Amino acid sequence: MSLLSTEGLVKEFGGLRAIDELSVSIEEGELVGVMGPNGAGKSTFFNCVSGVIPPDQGTVTLNENDVTGNSPESLAHRGLVRTFQNTRELETMTVRDNVRLAGPDQPGERTLPALLRSSSMREREETVQQRADELIETFELDHLANEYSSNLSGGQRKLLELARTLMLDPDVLLLDEPFAGVNPTLTREIADHVRDLNADGMTVVTIEHELETLAELVDRLIVLQQGQLLVEGNPETVLKDERVIEAYLGGDAE
Amino acid sequence: MSALDRFPPGHGDRALIAGIVCLFIGALFTMTPLRVQLPSAFYVFVEVGILFVIYGVLVLGLDLQYGHTGLVNFGHVVFFAVGAYATAMLSAQDTFTGIGLGYPWPLGLAVGVIAAAILGAAVSLTSIRLRGDFLAIVTLATAEIFHSLFVNFEDIFGGNVGILGVPRPIAAVISDSDTQLVATLLVLGGITFLTLAVVIRLTDAPYGRVLRAIRADELVTRSVGKSTITYKMQAFVYGAALAGLAGGMFALYNGAVAPGFFTIQVTVTVWIGMLLGGAANHRAVLAGLAIIMGLRLISRFALNVTPVAGDVFASIRLIVVGLILVAVIRYRPAGIWGDPQELGVDQ
Fold first, then answer.
1. pLDDT, tens only, B105-139
2. Which of B9, B205, B212 sits opposite A93 (nearest CB)?
3. pTM
4. Which chain A residue lies closest to B4 (C-alpha atoms)?
5. How is chain A split into domains, by residue range?
6. With an 8 Å Cβ cutoff, are A73 and B222 in contact?
7. CB–CB of A152/A93 below 8 Å?
8. What's the fold here for domain A25-88+154-161+168-254?
């Protein structure tokens, strides 16, 4: 049984079918890349799976539970967390608070323990703080910990977003273009982090335009076109597939 | 106060101590024959001070909603009014018009807070899932609806006369009017300090971090597992309940409530105070409110020395307040003590 799968997923915007009967399945521990030309439905696929928008038809299954149309917060509790294509930082908060926010099971996020400054809140906050500082250090953001995240560069924001999602210790991590707008050095760094996470057992699905980086990184590629599954398989075969070359380079290649 | 390391907290404790001290001294006046005498020129300062501490509770509630959570409430006065009316109607004896049930005032005060909270819950249930500007419209409309209810349902709310004969617990035990004023300021000021302590605790805790995250980006906050609708509703209801508390305090101090006390002017004053001081900073919003109310007070004295008629002067006063607000928004958009980066505005 796969860890995350979709069955006949459909999402329409007006008359346009962004996702058209899409069925994919991701096994536990896999590192999967999702690619496809602009408008192929990659982000809509992520949005439907992560609860940002409900699909019109079809089902999403996570850990053998039907999670179709579940809210992002409940999916986060079930172990599925995502990043966003255009990094979404909590710009009016510091780097450290961005990461600490994601710490789960904090009783101090309820009114009464907060008002009473309960010891459970303080103890939990110490753990949260410790874990946040570890992650901030791992992603080499420690010198920026007290900066507002609006002061960060594009690449640093990608790192911060990754650190924030990792606070939740997810089973499945969805990365929406983690390398977009990132310089080559940082790209390699982020790729290394993703590989490490996967080696530690985390299932990762990533959307990416940067084909070379993606092909090097992932075990399996899923290619979408016009909301449908075009090809899937190991990167070498997929990238040589004529349909993929056609879809990607299309008429423009001539 | 910067946003850095609000936790572990400690700021709230001073407010807590100040509140307890104020209440203690206020209580001394009510329980002992201790009396004070005020020079008559001081009266107006104490009276405005009392109004300031009542509005202080209002602005702290509004700041919890807007400053911390980003909820735009343009009808804050309605929760103030509902708290005041509920307190008055429950506890008034021999009101001239409208309902006066004559229950003990503490019960009235409790019902006032609860009534405002229930209205807050009703408003947030209908509107908080919608985009931010809809909440602004709904709250504004709610305030107008209730204002006309208060005016038109004379048998219930007493119409333009309002509810009279509301008990004044402090005046009931202190006969001397100077001491009455000072004791009222201390007791109500003590309540405001305690309110400050409560909101500081709430917003310094991880709870407040979630609120500020919602203000920054609701979707991100959801995607890290926080149920943002619940938090938005709670923040709105808490703000409404605080406004209800302020309303109850007002009714029990004033001894009467009427629609004229609850105009949109109240909402405008607390909004200006909050923006002037700097949203999301408890002490700043109180200071901003003090500035705007202080300006209004000083202008009263200015009337005596300016060679214009009263109505002309009133217009000039509005123009001056408007200019100050424009200047603040132009040069310090985050407010005088607000942190522009925390509020996400360009300085």
1. 999 999 999 999 999 999 999 988 887 789 999 99
2. B212
3. 0.91
4. A146
5. 25-88+154-161+168-254, 90-151
6. yes
7. no
8. Rossmann fold (3.40.50)
Chain segment B309-336, per-residue pLDDT in tens: 878 888 888 888 888 888 888 888 888 8
What are A's interface residues with B at a Cβ cutoff of 8 A? 50, 52, 71-73, 76-77, 81-82, 84, 88-94, 97, 100-104, 106, 108-111, 113-115, 117, 121-122, 125, 128, 146, 148, 150-151, 164-165, 167-168
The pLDDT confidence band at residue A202, using thresholds 50, 70 and 90, is: very high
Q: Does B144 touch chain A (CB under 8 A)?
A: no
Which tens digits make up the pLDDT trace of B254-300?
Answer: 999 999 999 999 999 999 999 999 999 999 999 999 999 998 888 87
For B:66-95, CB contacts with A below 8 A are none
The total of other beta-carbon atoms located within 10 Å of residue A201's CB is: 9
Query: Tokens 């076109």 label which residue?
Result: A225
Q: How many CB pairs under 8 A join A and B?
A: 120
Question: A234: distance to nearest CA of chain B, Å?
Answer: 30
The 3-state secondary structure of chain B, one letter per residue: CCCCCCCCCCHHHHHHHHHHHHHHHHHHHHHCCCCCCCCHHHHHHHHHHHHHHHHHHHHHHHHHHHHHCCCCCCCHHHHHHHHHHHHHHHHCCCCCCCCCCCCCHHHHHHHHHHHHHHHHHHHHHHHCCCCHHHHHHHHHHHHHHHHHHHHHCHHHHCCCCCECCCCCHHHHHCCCHHHHHHHHHHHHHHHHHHHHHHHHHHHHCHHHHHHHHHHHCHHHHHHCCCCHHHHHHHHHHHHHHHHHHHHHHHHHHHCCECHHHCCHHHHHHHHHHHHHHCCCCHHHHHHHHHHHHHHHHHHHHHHHHCCCCHHHHHHHHHHHHHHHHHHHHHHCCCCCCCCHHHHCCCC
Mean pLDDT of A221-239: 89
Contact A76 B228 (CB under 8 A): no
How far apart, in whole angstroms, are the C-alpha atoms of residue A73 and residue A54?
14
Which of A94, A117, A164 is opposite residue B3, by nearest beta carbon?
A94
